[in-house]
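Onboarding guide, step 5: your first structure request.
Type a short instruction followed by the sequence, for example:

Predict the 3D structure of this protein.
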Amino acid sequence: MTYMTDLQIAKTITPKPITEIAEKFGIKPEAIEMYGKFKAKLPLHAINKQNAAKSNLILVSAISPTPAGEGKTTMSIGLSEGLNRLHKKTTVVLREPSLGPVFGIKGGATGGGKSQVIPMEDINLHFTGDFSAIEKAHNLLSALIDNNIQSKTNSLDIDPRKVEWKRVMDMNDRALRHIIIGLGGTASGVPRETGFDITAASEIMAILCLAENLTDLKKRLGNIFIGYTHKKEAIYAKDLKAEGAMATLLKDAIKPNLVQTIEGNPAIIHGGPFANIAQGTNSVIATLMGMSLSDYTVTEAGFGLDLGAEKFLDIKCQSAGLKPKAIVLTTTIRALKYHGGADLKSLTTPNIDALKNGLPNLEKHLENALKFNIVPVIAINRFASDSDAEIQLIKDFAKTKNIKVALADVWAKGGEGALELAQCVIDVVESKKSNFTPLYNWDSSVTHKIETIAKQIYGADGVDYTSKAKAHLKKISNLSLDHLPICIAKTQKSLSDNPQLLGRPKGFIITVREIEIAAGAGFLVPITGDIMRMPGLPAHPASEHININEDGEITGLF
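The system replies with structure tokens like these:
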């Protein structure tokens, strides 16, 4: 059987004018800023925190990702469609795709099959320019730093050896991880070592996603830690008087984007931090916007529950005062078999033993959800190769744990395929059994917070710190930043920091090799294992298949 690609399916849909979607959302057409016929920016004044407090926030997460894919975004969109079909006014709130994965290995991030947001091509390629604005604001600060180092009349005496602020670009380019700038003589700046991160890992991205308004945005931008002077005094972006210009570049990017689902329901897409190297959730503003105008708001957090969901709950929810009512844990039979030791090429073949061996990964993520005192629901993202016996095994497992489980066929059927899941979510919400409790107190010591996450969420026996990380802990203490929450950079492929340890590994130690300071965003970034904040491209990147013809028709996006 030949299946249509996601792009081909998206092109069969005639989208509704975005003004019509805005009206369905409760916003008058004249209040939106249109980007063509099918995209728009939403006004910040539409956020109503009193209304938002009455909305039911649903977080969609997943088991540890595998090459087989789990379909978390697809599930989020399908669930929102299902809830709307059950007459619950629902908005899905998602992150914006980065061009790195689009042209790399992962592809786009607009869902799949009949569970997509559209216009798919626009969302995956530049969209409304938010990433570009974030990139420019970030690199403006970089330019101001090097200009100040060069200056003889307006110098802050910045030590070029102690600058910790890099540059960013929205592309996977490993050659830019470590570079030397300022070559070419005295007129071309002061030579120093630096590097590039991908834009999704930029602190400006994190700040945009945590800021609640322009005033908060400017304050956070000013608090960005840059480095030290020759006298070992800390330097911040506000010392360069940079925050005003940076915020000006972000004046439109701070407004969330309105698009639509395939079934014509509102969808908000805003911000795009990765979950393995950043906080992995869309903006506070977008989430509050959805909650202000909907009975139910479905949002996702990147990768597994150990990464995006933990950061969503411990950083975003505490920062913005959000309290999710349920967690949907997306899983696939294929992924669980992979965690159970099955070869990637054999995942479409029924294998009860491998599935049983993979269940501990699902079990650990369920336990983690309950640590936050939030009721989880298992969503089985159905594939044609799933056997009845395999489906029943997961249902039986869920029954032993007294956890609701639903078979969701959202790729093939959209909202119709999510009705069972939607009803499970409604049941959990109406039971009022969730009472969100953070994993740790922000005022705890940095090492206590890191070890709490490592032991409680990852299942580690302990945490080891390199000499560099220990020096960073001392620096954090000297800067009085111990009170900040933790945003661990870790491989998404394993609960541990070793991507080879699948399933539910035990008896391992998490190694923190360094800790980056994101004082403006308001968190610390312990970096573990071999994780890189500037990814590289695979041997055969997805860009090889992307093309455009004379009529402007794009092909190859997925």
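Each response can be followed by summary notes, for example: Residues 130-249 form a domain with the Domain 2, N(10)-formyltetrahydrofolate synthetase fold (CATH 3.30.1510.10).
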